[in-house]
């Protein structure tokens, strides 16, 4: 039962430029620690040249003096006897604030939410961007090279699509005749319409009876003393047997 499926699984070939493969590569680049620290490593290789009187050096020296053990103990000695006892270290406001600052500065806790959510990426299979990418991949693929161009799928909120839809609505026959919907069901006689009058005029032009008068319908009286009539009578008398 599964022999045909097992044989078919070995013949599947996925194009390297499909949206799923590109998404996997992008996710791999995002979660790669090597790429994450690549810029920092390259910056460290370039080295640095800093003078002793530079502002960062002075700032570091001032910070070192402030955070030195001597200064820290000096402030502590001055503040001895001014503390109010607390039942536990968690209830001490300064210790709680220090613990909170340490937690915020901890790199592991800072990246915990990201590390928990980076493998939970979910993209709907019917998203418009995914559908558009699949259709574009189908059109530019060598396998489906001879498909017609009308199979392009565009996003419905693109400016050209909105403009085309407005142009289609303006040119649509339904929209063009929508103002005549109130005429549906109203009786109307065709007598006197443009098409009927045009047909009657064409019939009159093509009518042979109106265009040409037959000879038998003409009222004609021959003249008896015309030369051709007199000649015809004379010839008839000469040729008559009587």
UniProtKB/TrEMBL annotation:
PANTHER family: NEBULIN. The keyword Membrane does not apply. GO terms for cellular component: Z disc. GO terms for molecular function: actin filament binding. It holds the Pfam family Nebulin. GO terms for biological process: cardiac muscle thin filament assembly. Keywords: Actin-binding, Repeat. This is NEBU protein. InterPro entries: NEBU/NEBL (IPR055297), Nebulin-like (IPR013998), Nebulin_repeat (IPR000900).
């Amino acid at each position: 039962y599964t022999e045909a499926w097992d044989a078919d699984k070995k013949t599947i070939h996925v194009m390297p430029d499909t949206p799923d493969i590109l998404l996997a590569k992008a996710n791999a680049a995002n979660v790669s620690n090597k790429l994450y620290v690549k810029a920092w490593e390259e910056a460290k290789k370039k080295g640095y040249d800093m003078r002793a009187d530079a502002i960062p050096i002075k700032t570091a020296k001032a910070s070192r003096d402030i955070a030195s053990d001597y200064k820290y103990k000096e402030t502590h000695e001055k503040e001895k006897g001014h503390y109010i006892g607390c039942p536990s270290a968690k209830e001490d406001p300064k210790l709680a604030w220090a613990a909170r600052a340490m937690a915020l500065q901890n790199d592991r806790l800072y990246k915990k939410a990201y590390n928990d959510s980076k493998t939970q990426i979910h993209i709907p299979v019917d998203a418009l961007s995914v559908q558009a990418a699949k259709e574009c991949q189908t059109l530019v693929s060598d396998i489906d090279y001879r498909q017609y161009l009308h199979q392009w799928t565009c996003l419905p909120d693109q400016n050209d699509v909105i403009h085309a839809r407005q142009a289609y609505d303006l040119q649509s026959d339904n929209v063009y005749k929508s103002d005549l919907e109130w005429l549906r069901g109203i009786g109307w006689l065709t007598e006197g319409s443009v098409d009927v009058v045009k047909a009657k005029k064409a019939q009159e032009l093509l009518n042979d009876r109106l265009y040409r008068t037959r000879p038998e319908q003409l009222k004609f009286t021959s003249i008896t003393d015309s030369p051709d009539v007199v000649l015809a009578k004379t010839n008839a008398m000469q040729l008559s047997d009587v």
